[in-house]
Specification:
Elements lengths: L9 H46 L1 H10 L4 H10 L4 E8 L4 E6 L19 E3 L2 E10 L2 E11 L3 H51 L13 H30 L4 E6 L4 E4 L1 H7 L3 H4 L14 H14 L1 E9 L5 E12 L5 E10 L1 H15 L9 H13 L6 E9 L2 H8 L1 H18 L5 E4 L4 E10 L2 H19 L3 E3 L2 E3 L3 E8 L6 H18 L3 E3 L2 H23 L2 E10 L4 E12 L3 E3 L1 H11 L2 H20 L8 E6 L1 H4 L4 H11 L7 E6 L7 H13 L3 E7 L6 H6 L4 E4 L1 H5 L5 H16 L3 E5 L4 H10 L3 E3 L9 H8 L1
Parallel strand pairs: 16-17, 19-21, 21-22, 22-23, 23-24, 24-25, 25-26
Antiparallel strand pairs: 1-2, 1-5, 3-4, 4-5, 6-7, 6-10, 8-9, 9-10, 11-13, 11-16, 12-13, 14-15, 18-19, 18-26, 19-20
Helix pairs in contact: 1-4, 2-3, 11-12, 13-15, 15-16, 17-19
Amino acid sequence: MTQKQYRGSIKRRLTLMILLVTLITGTVGYSGFVYWNMKSQYDKTIELSRTVAKVLSQDIAKLILLKKVAVAADITSKLKSFDNIDSMVLYKTDKKAVFQYSKDNKNFEAKPLKNDFERINSIKNNLLKLYVDATYQGTKLGVVELNFKVKTLGDVVKRDIPILISISIILLLLSFALANFFAKRFTKPILKLVSFLSKIDIIDSLKNRAKTNEDNEIGKLYDEINYMLQRIENSQKAEKIAAAAFETRSGMMITDAKERILQVNKAFTKISGYEKEEVIGKTPNVLRSGYQDENFYKEMKEKLNKYNHWSGEIYNKHKDGTIFPEHLTIQAVLDDDLNVIYYVASFIDLTIQKETEAKVEYLKQYDSLTGLANKEMLLNEIQTHLDKKEQFRWGLLLCFDLKDFKMINDAYGYSVGDKVLEVITSKIKKIFSDASIIARIAADEFAVWFPHIHEHKNQASIEAKLLTEFLISTLSEQIKIEDKTINPIIYAGLSIYNKNCNNANKLLKQADTALHQAKKEEKSFSYFDKQAQSMAQNHLDTYSQLIKAIKEKHFKLYYQLQYDDENRVYGAEALIRWIHPEEGMIPPDTFIPTAEKTGLIIPIGSWVIKTACKQLETWQKSKETSNWVIAINISAKQFLEEDFVSVIEKYLKQYNVKSNLLKVELTESILAKSLEEVKDKMLKIKELGVQVSLDDFGTGYSSLQYLRELPLNQIKIDRSFVNNILENKADEAIVKSILLFAEALDLQVVAEGIETKEQYDFLVSLGCKLFQGYYFAKPVKIEEIDSFSK
């Protein structure tokens, strides 16, 4: 650092100060002396004037009262005895001069006394003029004007100049001597201190301390300097510690109160990718990732302002755009007035920690070999689902394993065994992509969970059986690994459950028990619930018999007539019945679910279409029945078949039927499919002239949106709304709404399930025009319909 040149001098300042003090003191003292001298002279002169007046009082009386002129000589003689009286004038009371005296001026001439003469004494031309009354024995005879010779301020100063010069020289010499003495006395310890501090600056050591014997302000100054050195030394130690702490593995950032970055450490650069020069002067917003919203930062600011501290996890953005997690701590630094002056932020990159935690968490829930959920995750997922009390349908937990898997490991090694498991896993994922969870729960044991398979237990049992058979069939296919061929043998255990199940461990134990039972009995699969197993067996029997029924034509159509509001027949709904050669008539609820699950509904449905068209051909030949419409029920599975429309068209042409006399009834379940696909298929049906009706309206997926968009001719009010319409206001309101909307959309409405005249009359009063139910007719054979029409 450049040394500054100091031109000032304590000695010079002390000399000037002493001289100034001496000068002021001498001037004030001399001025006081002069003032006292002048005042004393004035007071003595006034006293003298009174003395003169008394001395001359008798002579003045003689002169004025007795008019003795000779007395004037006595007065003059007496006045000459006073050296400092210059002149004197005696005025009578009429202010006329009767006597005058002048010591040195022979031409002195008294002037008449003015009426407004001043009694105020004044000095002029070294003369002090005084006016005193001339009295004798208390009687005023006139006024005496006396002029005394006095010394002025200038006379006094002229008189004292030699003395003043002598004193000034002495004081000057004395000031220099005193200044030199005091300068050495005061500057020696100061110069010693300066020399000490200079050495500290040169050798850069703060351990030495300044020493002095002074027991005064200089000594206090030395103590303060030593205390300051101690604080600087401590501060340097703290700075070294802080510098070492600042350069830690944690990213550090210091900002001012306005959040402008002042300093960052090397770890900051390493973690964020930003060099120090790139962020100094900017705000920490440069690191924002956008992962947190503004509310997050608002809450952070509020807590920081309230507690002067914030700590938590945050996601920031690297210079290259990478988002990384960090644990951030912000501490406010306050001044003595508790105002924020700095913010110190430290953060740790949590990327590796998060990855490790994610890996640990993954391994806690997933199998490392197959990537499937493990047993713990399976149980947690099922238990969480059960705890929500949302098990409205029957669910299925399926467990399966490979027979003699240990022999594969022993014969071919664990690497081949692992590859077998990987192949099995790949196949499971492919065929059961809609399963809620697939898990590996033991070495070669797997579980597949379907929380919702059907609302009815018998259908759920059938669905479970079909799924299991499909799984066993797929996984039993030959596996080739390297030059080895493996033929897996699969055993499975099934446990179906409903809302009464509340324990995941118990459910898994049931499925596992069923699996062991299957292995024990050497069956492909086994149910834990024997009733479900019986249902599945019935399904299998039904399936076999359905194939025979189709082949041997055991099916027959029954017809339930439909009426209008004038009690006239306008058509009928064709209802399939299975006439079993041994068991008699089997209702559709018993065999239709199996037919739909197995795909047999397609040939059965085609037979229904063909039979209905053939019946329409017959009815068209009779005048009474020529305009009757036959409604046939179409399953969603058949409706979505590619050739469905062509099948209808085929039979319409084959029997030369008027297409508008055929009506296909679709259940609301079909609306769960793609709306556009359903709409397109309906339009193709209507292009043939065939009517389209939506059955069981209001119980499933339908909505007013569908009514507006779908090309329907008719909707059927479900029997559940008709049953209690006379007692239930809600059902009444729903039916009214359906009728109003249907009228607005120009749709026919059929109310089904009419069982009483009261229901019929009430629905007529609401505006319903078409009806179906036991009140009018039960489903009967065609022969009975033919006899009725005749």
